[in-house]
Amino acid sequence: MIDRADFWRDQCQAALRIKIEFGIEKALGYLIGEKLVAFVRDSDRNDRVRAVLPEFVLEIKRIFNQFEIRAYLDNVKRIGSLAHVCTDEEYEVFRTAGAIDEDPVEGAEDVLIVERIKEMLLDR
Q1: What tens digit of pLDDT does each residue of 63-102 get?
Q2: How far is Cα 57 from Cα 84, in angstroms, rounded to an integer?
Q3: What's the pLDDT score for residue 124?
Q4: Which of 110, 3, 15, 117 is nearest to 70 (CA)?
Q5: For every residue of 79-106, which 3-state class applies, written as one string?
Q6: How far apart are CA 27 and CA 19, in angstroms?
Q7: Is the pLDDT higher at 6 or at 124?
Q8: CB atoms < 10 A from the CB of 9, how many?
């Protein structure tokens, strides 16, 4: 298991570069849909990750405003690295070819993690 507690700042810096070069949607997909999802998942098993999670969330809120975050989270269809790098058509090709694991338990966990992220980022 990678200890993400040491990497979140680098990931935020990368998201800033992605935001400039590829746009807000790609940056949000990278930082929230991929990195924060993995971070939250790890926080359930790693005390160091859990301890810095609030700092990571605050930095995401500094990089993106509430409207950008809400628009992303209200419309997120997929999470993970393929979610923000593939078009819907490309993703379907991977899925049809069997290159994407479609575990229903993991899918349910992903839904719960996205809901936790909404609670953290949307000031509910």
Answers
A1: 999 999 999 999 988 888 777 777 788 878 878 888 777 7
A2: 20
A3: 61
A4: 117
A5: CCHHHHHCCHHHHHHHHHCCCCCCCHHH
A6: 5
A7: 6
A8: 12
